[in-house]
Write a structure and sequence with these properties.
Layout (H helix, E strand, L loop, with lengths): L1 H4 L9 H16 L5 H8 L5 H19 L6 H13 L48
């Protein structure tokens, strides 16, 4: 399954490509066609421990998602989880809105955004409202 959808002759992968491939390899493993060598090769592309953890999470998410379809034909599950989400890995559809379902690669492609700080920057020096006396 994995070999028919993804090119196996690559030299380098971006973070997004590594996560997408790890997810697909997890789905393949859940469907009974594991490719441990390909997974280890994708996992070895991680430059940091954080990236390696994301790849491992994507793999496990693929396994979990494929297990949610017991008794369904493998080709149907593969099509639903991997092929349908290949068109736009960012999760945006043609209307520009984000994907809200849980199928496909996990939305771990970017880091969390910092919380907003008021313009005066004094929020770090003030007590939270629930600690102030009234």
């Amino acid at each position: 399954m994995y070999d028919s959808e993804f090119d196996t002759e690559w030299a380098d992968l971006s973070k997004n490509e590594a996560l997408e491939r790890a997810f697909a390899l997890g789905v393949a493993r859940g469907l009974g066609t594991p490719d441990r060598e390909a997974y280890e090769r994708v996992r070895d592309t991680a430059e940091t421990t954080y990236e390696r953890s994301l790849i491992e999470l994507a793999y496990e998410e693929g396994r979990t998602k494929s297990a949610e379809h017991p008794g369904t034909e493998s080709a149907v599950v593969w099509e639903e989880l991997v092929i349908d989400t290949d068109a736009d890995p960012s999760g945006a559809d043609s209307s520009g809105s984000s994907r809200h379902d849980d199928d496909g690669p996990p939305e771990m492609f970017s880091r969390a955004k910092p919380t907003a700080v008021p313009d005066d920057g004094l929020d770090r020096m003030r007590l939270p409202a629930f600690l102030r006396r009234r």
